[in-house]
């Protein structure tokens, strides 16, 4: 199976990038299944129902969220109406929506998509992600219940993302980090057959400070004072993420390639 994961969509620029490029990539790369992290798609803070529909119509099969899952209050009710949106497993007890769900890819193949929030350096304490992800993967074994399993690890610390990759090795097709908006250069297949990337990066304008216009973040770093709001940068987006090929029989990864399409970063992707 050919899978594509795209990192955090950042504001209007990121949404425009997905709308511009994703249909073409689906056709050119013969993609079977696409997951997009939409956690910052609405003005850099959460995902509105209208913008979720835009990303799904553009070619995403599933949208994942993150710690800003319900910053847009309408998502509290919309997530129960739209099963193609996944919030973190450990967001909060009683949170609406689902943190893991099985979807159908091309030719009827089954794909598990799940997401967890990290605990290190996050603004509030979340339930143990390792135990919850283990339970989700045991319930949906590769080569049995599902043909592929994708884990979105939404957290700050690179070490925690890497630990999650090794924790899931052999039980997931792909473990990919999101949240920090900077693409890493460590795409690899772990010994047990799980593809791993510490951070997918963002789908947004890289002439920025992690997707925000530069002036206010720089002012805060230099002076320690808040003067204005953060505003998403609006120039052309680069789509960043990971392309993965899997073995349908085992669900394990056979290839992973970092993806950069459009915008300022050098282009990369499968050939």
> What count of domains describes the coordinates?
1
Choose one word for the global shape: globular
What does the average pLDDT come to?
Answer: 96
Task: For the largest sheet, list the strands in their spatial order.
Answer: 5-4-3-1-13-14
Task: Count every helix, treating DSSP H or I runs of 4 or more residues as helices.
Answer: 6
Percent range for helical residues?
10-25%
Q: SSE order, as H and E?
A: EEHEHEHEEEHEHEEEEHEE
Tell me the Rg in angstroms: 17 Å
Largest sheet: 6 strands, mixed
Describe this structure in words.
- The protein is α/β, with parallel strands linked by helices and 271 residues long.
- It has a single domain, classed as Metallo-dependent phosphatases (Purple Acid Phosphatase, chain A, domain 2), CATH 3.60.21.10.
- It has six helices and 14 strands.
- The chain has helices spanning 11-28, 49-58, 75-81, 129-139, 158-167, 215-223; strands at residues 2-6, 8-9, 33-37, 62-64, 85-86, 100-104, 110-117, 148-154, 174-178, 188-189, 195-197, 202-203, 239-246, 253-261.
- 51% of the residues are buried.
In short:
This protein has 271 residues and is an alpha/beta fold. The chain contains six helices and 14 strands.
Key traits:
271 residues, alpha/beta, Purple Acid Phosphatase, chain A, domain 2, 6-stranded mixed sheet, globular
Spell out the blueprint of helices and strands.
Elements: E1 2-6, E2 8-9, H1 11-28, E3 33-37, H2 49-58, E4 62-64, H3 75-81, E5 85-86, E6 100-104, E7 110-117, H4 129-139, E8 148-154, H5 158-167, E9 174-178, E10 188-189, E11 195-197, E12 202-203, H6 215-223, E13 239-246, E14 253-261
Parallel strand pairs: 1-3, 2-12, 3-4, 4-5, 7-8, 8-9, 9-11
Antiparallel strand pairs: 1-13, 6-7, 10-11, 13-14
């Amino acid at each position: 199976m050919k899978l594509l994961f795209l990192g955090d969509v950042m504001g209007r620029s990121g949404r425009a990038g997905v709308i511009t490029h994703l249909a073409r990539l689906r056709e050119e790369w013969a993609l079977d299944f696409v997951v997009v992290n939409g956690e910052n798609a609405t003005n850099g803070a959460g995902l509105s129902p209208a913008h979720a529909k835009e990303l799904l119509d553009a070619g995403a099969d599933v949208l994942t969220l993150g710690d800003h899952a319900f910053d847009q209050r309408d998502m509290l009710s919309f997530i129960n109406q739209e099963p193609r949106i996944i919030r973190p497993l450990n967001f909060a007890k009683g949170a609406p929506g689902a943190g893991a769900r099985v979807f159908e890819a091309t030719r009827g193949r089954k794909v598990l998509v799940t997401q967890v929030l990290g605990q290190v350096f996050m603004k509030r304490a979340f339930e143990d992600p390792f135990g919850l992800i283990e339970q989700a993967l045991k319930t949906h074994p590769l080569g049995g219940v599902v043909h592929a399993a994708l884990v979105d690890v939404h957290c700050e610390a690179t070490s925690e993302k890497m630990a999650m990759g090794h924790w899931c090795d052999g039980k997931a097709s792909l473990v990919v980090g999101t949240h920090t908006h900077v693409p890493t250069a460590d795409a690899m297949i772990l010994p047990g057959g799980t593809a791993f990337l510490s951070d997918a990066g963002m789908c947004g304008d890289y002439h920025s400070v992690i997707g925000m216009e530069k002036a206010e973040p720089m002012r805060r770093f230099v002076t320690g004072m808040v003067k204005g709001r953060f505003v998403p940068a609006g120039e052309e987006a680069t789509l960043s993420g990971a392309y993965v090929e899997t073995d349908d029989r085992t669900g394990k990864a056979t290839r992973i390639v970092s993806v950069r399409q459009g915008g300022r970063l050098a282009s990369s992707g499968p050939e």
